[in-house]
Amino acid sequence: MKKPLIMTPGPTYVSEDVRDAMSKEITNPDIDLSFYEFYRETCEKIGQLLNTENKVLILDGEGILGLEAACASLIEVGDRVLCIDNGIFGRGFGDFAKMYGAEVVYFESDYRRGLDVAALEEFLKQDSDFKLATLVHCETPSGILNPVDRICPLLDEHGIISVVDSVSSIGGEELLVDKWKIDIALGGSQKCLSAPPGLTFLSVSDRAWNAVKGRKTPVAGFYCNLGIWENWYENKWFPYTQPISDIYALSKAVQNIIEEQTTVERHAEIAERVRTALESSGLEIYAKDSRSNAVTSVVIPEGLSYSEIYDGMLSEGVMIAGAFDYLAGVVLRIGHMGENCYEEKLYITLKALDKVLRALGVKIKGKIHSNFID
Residue 88 needs a FRET pair 20 to 30 A away by CA distance; which of 97, 232, 322, 350 works? Predict the structure, then answer.
């Protein structure tokens, strides 16, 4: 049976050259000194992608590991943490902080719009006594892109360490870590980078490193402790055996983006055409503004279920995603990120969606795929 075209918002299609890199003959990464150089070079390439001079680490685990590692390493019992919440992952970040003993204060904003920075500014005038703040760049379930270019400088003005979940935006959206004063930027391999799932990476500012090293109490755990990575290169000692094949693949995927040079522009152009095609056809996009260029969440037409649409799309050879939590059964999601973000793949996807929705009785204006091309 032919595998479906994967048009989900991660994991995404993995290109042949990345798969080839993953299949390279491996060495022993613990004792082969050349691998320490390769790991460092890969971290430097990721830093180039993030526009940062900060230290970069690659961790063996899916993107959630990075979120928890940041919380585990920075938070001590009783620390006040600001959780900037306008979506599922934004609110969920607060749960990680609570697990490590934080006193979490939530700043809530409209779940269908980009974060209200003016309201956050007013909030911080009244209360800014926080060790760190957690926030999400791209809320993948809703398709909202938050203005971290305005949020993080504001947090910096108040001396608050910023921890940004940018797992589904890196490689598809502009991210200027140093210019925007982002202390910790968290990424994952399986979204816009289109590498296999299984790795998280993060950049860490000097301020964040000093906070980790200046703890009064030890980190409650080993694997999530960023402190164990200090001087790994100088000492030629990894805290644990590295997933060498995954890192080979990630390095190639990052190199592909660097060489393309116009990846962000490609995502912006394709995303705008997708949104225009959907709305011109009479469908509703969940995000009212500040829309992501990596994923679009479409409101499921009244009277239909996600499973009906998913099954129909799969029968047409295309895999799309639903959502979870409060968005379960509310939206379907099309991932136009990484290797998914090309005209041919989106045309096939939208043509299939047009056919499936019509078969389910939805009245479509024109043809979705024709609107995409026009």
Answer: 350
- Laid out side by side, the sheet with 132-136 consists of 55-60, 199-204, 184-188, 161-165, 132-136, 80-85, 103-108
Report the pLDDT averaged over residues 136-153.
99
Going 281 to 285 to 291 to 293, the CA torsion angle's sign is: negative
H or E element in which residue 80 lies: strand 80-85
Across 153-166, b (16+ Cβ under 10 Å) vs e yields ebbbeeebbbbbbb
Q: Does domain 5-10+261-373 have CATH number 3.90.480.20?
A: no
Give the DSSP per-residue string, 224-259. Answer: T-GGGGTTHHHHT--SS---HHHHHHHHHHHHHHHH
Residue 333, annotated as binding a ligand:
yes
pLDDT at 39 over 70: yes
Count other Cβ atoms within 10 Å, centred on residue 225.
Answer: 16
Ordered by start, the domain boundaries in the chain are 5-10+261-373, 16-259
Contact status, residue 93 vs residue 135, Cβ threshold 8 Å: yes
Q: Answer yes or no: are the C-beta atoms of 232 and 204 closer than 8 Å.
A: no
- The angle subtended at Cα 208 by Cα 251 and Cα 133, nearest 5°, is 100
Rounded-to-integer distance, Cα 62 and Cα 187, Å: 9
**Distance, CA of 153 to CA of 327 (rounded, Å):** 31
Q: Confirm or reject CATH 3.40.640.10 for domain 16-259, answering yes or no.
A: yes
Distance CA 20, CA 322 (A): 31
Asked whether residue 65 carries a pLDDT value surpassing 90, the answer given is yes
Stretch 233-252: mean pLDDT: 98
pLDDT at position 128: 98
How many angstroms separate the CA atoms of 39 and 46, rounded? 11
